[in-house]
Amino acid sequence: MKFFSQIAFDWRVGFAHFAGVLLLSLSALSCNAQVHAEGPGWLRQDERRSGLSFKSEDLQAQQNDDAINPSFLWVDQGQRMWSEAPQPHAPSCQSCHSDAKTRMKGVALNYPKWDKRSKQLINLESQINACRVNKQGAKALAYESDELLALTSWLTLASRGMTSERRIDQSIAASFDRGQRFYEKRIGQNNLSCAHCHTQHFSDRLGGEVISQGHPQAYPAYRLEWQKMGSLQRRLRACLSGVKAEILPFGSQELMELELYLHFRGQGLALESPGVRR
Q1: pLDDT, tens digit, for every residue of 36-78?
Q2: What is the pLDDT of residue 240?
Q3: How much is the pLDDT for 38?
């Protein structure tokens, strides 16, 4: 009987240990989405404002009226590309995904995300190119090309007005951490971080421009200074140039991780792309 009592005791101890480990693991996963909501770069949800709210009434009106929003030149091109095969005998995007306005609704909010196939973080532009190469047998489109901006703008438009409800799961937690550290780190000859401008000094003026909170929800966007559509990564590279830091290449994991952090930092704000900025 003593032998069987010892087995029963060992079983209870083992089960209690397993349950404790499981509880700690689940708690860690549950807290994973909450633990990052702090730090010198973060804003409380009740503080967050659309970048458009920092712009002039004329620019706000231009973004909010599709008839005069210049971004729609690219959106219209993207709509055509969606329904056309990129080369003979290849499927079109529409033949696989059907109507973008309905089937692609909410998709843009899921990027950047971890891609199991390439084992790295990818954004919507990367996903478009992966589909072209792997599904359509076509060449990848160059970053900042009108064609890639057009397709990205068309797909993003399907989610306009929606807000993200993603959580930081284990697949992107490390990428998020690196993106947050990048945002809060002093860089460049000016020795400034992104947080210095967009968290600590938003609403102040830098030259003739009012500093926004740096949220990415308007991108891809038409910028008047560029006289064309541009991606979020182009805007981030412009900021790096502004503080006289190393200009990271398009598609680099550092820019992807910064994109990821910015999208979570702006959660609760509606997606407003295609935007217009000065």
Answers
A1: 557 899 999 999 999 999 999 999 999 999 999 999 999 999 9
A2: 98
A3: 74
Neighbours of 13 (CB within 10 A): 10
Q: What percent of the chain has pLDDT over 90?
A: 84
Going along the chain from its start, the domains and CATH numbers come out as 52-65+168-277 (1.10.760.10), 72-81+94-157 (1.10.760.10)
Contact 105, 158 (CB under 8 A): yes
Which tens digits make up the pLDDT trace of 99-122? Answer: 999 999 999 999 999 999 999 999
Rounded distance between C-alpha atoms, residue 131 and residue 92, angstroms: 10
Helices (H), 42-189: 57-64, 72-83, 93-97, 100-103, 124-135, 146-157, 173-184
pTM: 0.86
Copy the structure tokens of residue 113. Answer: 């995300």
**Is 239 labeled as catalytic in the residue annotation?**
yes
Separation of alpha carbons 228 and 222, rounded Å = 5
- Is the torsion defined by CA of 91, 97, 102, 107 positive or negative? negative
> Which residue in 96, 194, 197, 239 is the catalytic one?
239
Spatial separation of the C-alpha atoms in residues 37 and 232, rounded to whole Å = 22
* Residue 256 near residue 122, CB atoms below 8 Å: yes
* Residue 220 CB partners (closer than 8 Å, separation 6+): 71, 74, 149, 152, 153, 156, 229, 230, 231, 232, 273, 274, 275
Phi-psi region of 114 (alpha: psi -120 to 50; beta: other; left: phi over 0): beta
pLDDT in tens, 196-207: 999 999 999 988
Integer CA distances (angstroms), 102 to 94, 97, 107, 145, in order? 12, 10, 10, 26
- The mean per-residue pLDDT over the stretch 1-14 comes to 44
